[in-house]
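Lest this sound abstract, we think one record worth quoting, the chain in one-letter code, the fold tokenised, each line plainly labelled:

>
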Amino acid sequence: MTILVDTGILYAAADADDAWHERAAGWLVATRTPLLVPVTVLPEVCYLLQTRLGAAAELLFVRSLQQDFLVEAATDSDFERCGELLEIYPAIGFVDASLVAMAERLNIPRVATTDRRHLSMIRPSHVEAFELLP
């Protein structure tokens, strides 16, 4: 079963100084489940990598996309659902809303994230609550 991957896990895996680094990097290496990254997560990850770790880190991530991850495009219905989610949960922001919308559309209950605060408060339409990994 596919796992949806959020910004924090991808960034933490690259930043050796991040509190989640060992956990995120170890989990990414060990998992054999297909990892799906919403296209809406990519600019956020790249921005953080570029501004905090430099161009080389961003480039390494971009090059890893084809071999390590599946990238999911956003649909018009995802954007509509984002608006609904942001009305209900204004603190989550667009990227988290898009992740939830895609999880609902694709019926994915598991999310790899460091953002326990936002994603644990959301009640997705397809499951009672997300299973947050790692």
